[in-house]
């Protein structure tokens, strides 16, 4: 895979600008650099700076009907570098009226964060619910996804997807054949808001049954609202709430709930201040006597963002996280996080 990435880089460099312009091909590279320093713990393993991700993205029309996307990414997770095929799919918005579809490998079209690349998120690290239910970056798989604009008097889009399901999350190793492959759906609506705002609300469902007969079901709600002053984003409010039910074949089901809330306000045309509240709990946690244990993990991250343009971002955050069980705090972790991201080239337009 590393050789393929090098070949692709050489290919892109050899094409030149004129070739991209003539064919409609758009080429871009995105880099995500992060660093963290622990404040009150002695875990020095994370006191470092890493290039978390470097991605090369090619998009463009294949012909008058179909479009294509191909991306390669090099990741550094816990100091281990790895190169891989990220996304590769063919799709169209022209073949079927009021519809779009894609076939290939892609991030599953559910929720809010899972539909965006990590360097496009409005904060640095994945909330606990995203990490536990989808993976630190997101769940991607190979399959078919279809979205139709429902003929109603208001905006309503329905998405249905079916993917292989051999793995779930951002896994690099293919697992065994699942009993039931991953299938999912999302129903989304958009509503204009006063003072130049707009909001998108999504209802989500995902289910799969693994090779060991463990069935996983996810129910979720995602919400994003934005207010702009001209081209500048003045206020952002983003949130997701998910419930996961794991049903192993031989033991009782496990239910967990997680959500995050992220309000952000512009301080100037280029600086923003936001606070991420992250919450996660196992709904039916019991001790050895069968007594229910109240438990939750919470994190608060005030985040300062500087965007010189849509192509470069600097962030600084202070993370305060703690674990509470049966009314007592059992863990308290504080750290400082920093991020620098940039995009070179013609990056595709972002979704709302």
Structural write-up:
This protein has 352 residues and is mainly beta. It has one domain: Porin, CATH 2.40.160.10. The chain has two helices and 16 strands. The chain has helices at 2-23, 128-133; strands at 26-38, 48-61, 67-77, 80-92, 99-107, 140-149, 156-163, 180-193, 197-209, 215-229, 232-247, 254-266, 271-282, 295-309, 312-325, 328-345. Strands 1-2-3-4-5-6-7-8-9-10-11-12-13-14-15-16 form a 16-stranded antiparallel barrel. Strand 9 (197-209) and strand 10 (215-229) form a beta hairpin. The radius of gyration is 21 Å and the shape is globular. The two termini are 33 Å apart. Residues 16-20 have low confidence and may be disordered.
Global outline:
globular
* Unreliable sequence segments: 16-20
How many DSSP E strands? 16
Query: What do we call the CATH homologous superfamily?
Result: Porin
Topology:
Elements: H1 2-23, E1 26-38, E2 48-61, E3 67-77, E4 80-92, E5 99-107, H2 128-133, E6 140-149, E7 156-163, E8 180-193, E9 197-209, E10 215-229, E11 232-247, E12 254-266, E13 271-282, E14 295-309, E15 312-325, E16 328-345
Q: What distinguishing features does this structure have?
A:
352 residues, mainly beta, Porin, 16-stranded antiparallel beta barrel, 16 strands, globular
């Amino acid at each position: 895979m590393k050789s393929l990435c090098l070949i692709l880089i050489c290919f892109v460099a050899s094409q030149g600008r004129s070739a991209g312009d003539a064919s409609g091909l758009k080429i871009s590279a995105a880099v995500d650099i992060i660093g963290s320093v622990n404040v009150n713990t002695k875990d020095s393993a994370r006191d470092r700076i890493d290039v978390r991700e470097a991605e090369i993205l090619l998009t463009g029309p294949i012909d008058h009907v179909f479009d294509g996307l191909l991306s390669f990414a090099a990741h550094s997770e816990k100091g281990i570098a790895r190169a891989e095929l990220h996304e590769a799919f063919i799709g169209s918005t022209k073949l079927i009226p009021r519809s779009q579809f894609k076939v290939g490998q892609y991030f599953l079209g559910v929720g809010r964060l899972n539909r965006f690349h990590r360097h496009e998120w409005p904060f640095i690290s994945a909330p606990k619910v995203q990490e536990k239910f989808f993976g630190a970056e997101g769940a991607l798989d190979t399959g078919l996804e279809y979205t139709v604009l429902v003929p109603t008097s208001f905006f309503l889009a329905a998405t249905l997807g079916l993917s292989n399901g051999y793995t779930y999350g951002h896994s690099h190793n293919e697992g065994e054949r699942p009993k039931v492959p991953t299938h999912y759906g999302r129903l989304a609506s958009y509503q204009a808001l006063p003072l130049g705002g707009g909001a998108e609300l999504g209802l989500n469902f995902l289910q799969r049954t693994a090779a060991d007969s463990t069935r996983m079901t996810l129910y979720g709600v995602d919400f994003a609202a934005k207010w702009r002053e001209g081209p500048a984003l003045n206020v952002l409010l983003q949130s997701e709430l998910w419930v996961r039910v794991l049903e192993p074949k031989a033991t009782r089901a496990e239910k967990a709930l997680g959500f995050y809330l992220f309000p952000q306000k512009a301080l100037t045309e280029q600086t923003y201040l936001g606070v991420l509240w992250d919450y996660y709990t196992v709904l039916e946690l019991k001790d050895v006597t069968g007594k229910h244990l109240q438990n939750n993990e919470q994190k608060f991250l005030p985040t300062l963002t500087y965007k010189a343009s849509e192509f470069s971002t600097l962030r600084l955050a202070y993370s305060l996280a703690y674990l509470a069980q049966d009314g007592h705090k059992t863990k308290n972790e504080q750290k400082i996080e920093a991020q620098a991201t940039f995009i070179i080239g013609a990056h595709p337009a972002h979704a709302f």
